[in-house]
Amino acid sequence: MANPLRVQAAELLRRPGSEKHLDLEVTVDDVGIDDDRFRPTDPVRVHLRLEALTDGIVVNGEVVAPWHGTCRRCAAAAGGVLHSEVHELYQDVVTDPDAFPLEGDQLDLEPMVREVLVLDAPMSPLCRDDCAGLCPQCGTDLNSGSCSCDAPPSDPRWGALDQLRATLDEGDPTD
Ligand SMILES: [Zn+2]
Ligand SMILES: [Zn+2]
Questions:
Q1: How far does residue 133's CA lie from ligand 2's centre (Å)?
Q2: Could you give the CA distance from residue 119 to residue 59 in angstroms, rounded to a whole number?
Q3: How many helices (H) and strands (E) does the chain have?
Q4: What is the pLDDT of residues 11-38, one digit of tens each?
Q5: CA-derived radius of gyration, the chain
């Protein structure tokens, strides 16, 4: 079977300004991703608009795939669907350091799709934005209830610090 990620672009390259739309579904395995955050048989959906220049092709759109991980606070399963935006350039003679090479009159989308997904998948995810995490003393999952560990002694002099800590927690990035 022909590789759907190898796109014939001879027509496009003959007519600068012309466009081609691509909607493909392949698997994580087809894209050659070997990463714990993706499962080999999961679908990867590719929605792209190819636009011909005189010396290359601009590729815009998105790549959509499920990701999987472990919550950094409570160690429960985390996951979701990643929508990675694509703004890439393929060049015949590569002069842009970020461009991908055209192979003759073909675009190989595989390295590009692999790169955007691996770069965009969360490195230290949360199971949900307000995950309460585990008690540092007894390990109870504070999402499912409180534990009987003593609350740390409260001292009014620490009030300002507690407030600062709460502010920092709110600003915690979620991915
Ligand atoms: Zn969690
Ligand atoms: Zn506890």
A1: 11
A2: 17
A3: 3, 7
A4: 999 999 999 999 999 999 999 999 999 9
A5: 23
